[in-house]
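Forwarding the complex inputs:
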Amino acid sequence: MIEILACGPLGSVQDLGREGYLRFGVGEAGAMDRLALMIGNLMLDNPAGLAGIEIAVFPFQARFLQDIAFAVTGADRAAQLDGRPLLPWWTQVARAGQVLTLSGSGVDHGAGARSYLLCEGGMDVPLVLGSRSTQLRGRFGGHMGRTLVQGDIVRSGVAERRGASSPPQDCSYGFGVLPPEHALPWAAFCNAGAGNPDIATAVRVVPAAEYRNFDDVSVQNFWDSVWRISAQSDRYGFRLAGPGLALREPMETRSHGIVPGVIQVPPNGQPIIQMRDAQPTGGYPKVGTVIEADLWRLSQAPTGAWIRFVCVSYEASVCALDDLDAYLARLKRHIALYRQAAA
Amino acid sequence: MNDDSLMHPQALQQIAQWLQAADIDAVTIESMVERVVLSRGPNGYSVQRSVAAPEAPSDTPPATVPPRGSVDVLAGSVGIFLDRHPWRSTPLVQPGDRVQAGATLGLLQIGLVLASVVAPDTGTVSRPLIAPGTIVGYGTPLFDIATGAH
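Prediction (whole assembly, two chains):
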């Protein structure tokens, strides 16, 4: 069990998302950086999709009310356990009473935006429509359908995994993994801008249905520009600042189903990338869709960061998902080898 | 192949597959009677066998005998020795730091995993004995810790 001692707004329990209900108008929700969530779970020998706590505003502080193994992944926020520093992307055993703090200060590495706290057995909140993600708009799922506040107590599923009385095996915890950027650098698919410290990330985009409705200058600008993630950006969507994108001629589309990653262009010409809590439908013209395999990169670009888009085919976007799967399989294997050797 | 041989072909094949999966270039396996080296070449892993002479020189330098009042910190695994986390610009410890038993002095990168190099004893830590970024073998001395009161 974990007691929340301090939590800014926007902290919530999330798993990989609520799949299969978009057709009923229920958005997917789920972790913004699903890769960080999965990696944390793998480090704990959890099923990859167990729920964790997504933390977007710092400082964050929580007390462990039981002996439990935990992992902190995602953005580096100078994590400390009872005042002793933890390394990024690390898993450790906590003793009952110990306090975890993510302070958001003293960080060398370029920003990152969201951190994830995972624990043995996952966060044990009720399943709603097959998921433990918090549906903030609909106010259900996760921890009581809302963001976390001071005083909240979140149970862990560890009692199911092992007898609650048997402490976690110390020897196989207390290790880290290389952050995913090392194995999956964006420079691998985008040379332009690589080495430029101002550019947080490049993401791959598949042209969307209304792509050809934009004029040539706009299309050129879409690919060639760097886009700034404005302050009006959150789990619902990232509003970008950059050159205005214009249609060849005005068009109206009926509202239709959209998914996280879709890049809509409202009348003001400034693109909005739909994120995990986006509405399930939208009527603005879509210029492209950030590929599913790159949503984790996007989610770690903080407000004010610059991003750019790289055009890829649908086939390439599917291959990118295969690459992610292969990376996770390799990581799982390396972790298993390490645990065997450490035991 | 005689029955005393350390490794049968199927075992060697299996080990070669594990090495390939873990992206390891070479391994040396020694018994009292022989020594088997599997190393990766352009066509996969090759095997070299030799009889182990009692005083056969090994590839790694002889273990240093630390001066009295000093403890070796040895690599617990093959891996790449790091003196800092990839996301940090400062090393985990500085030469001359006083460290407690159990403190993390450095890291070993083993594939995608980062393992701690842990102080076995309380004392004053030396500078790293191996350049960060070097691939080290199991048992390679990485630091000295001068134990005893100051």
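The interface with chain B takes residues 76, 87-89, 108-109, 174-179, 182-183, 330-331, 333-335, 337-338, 341-342 of chain A (CB under 8 Å).
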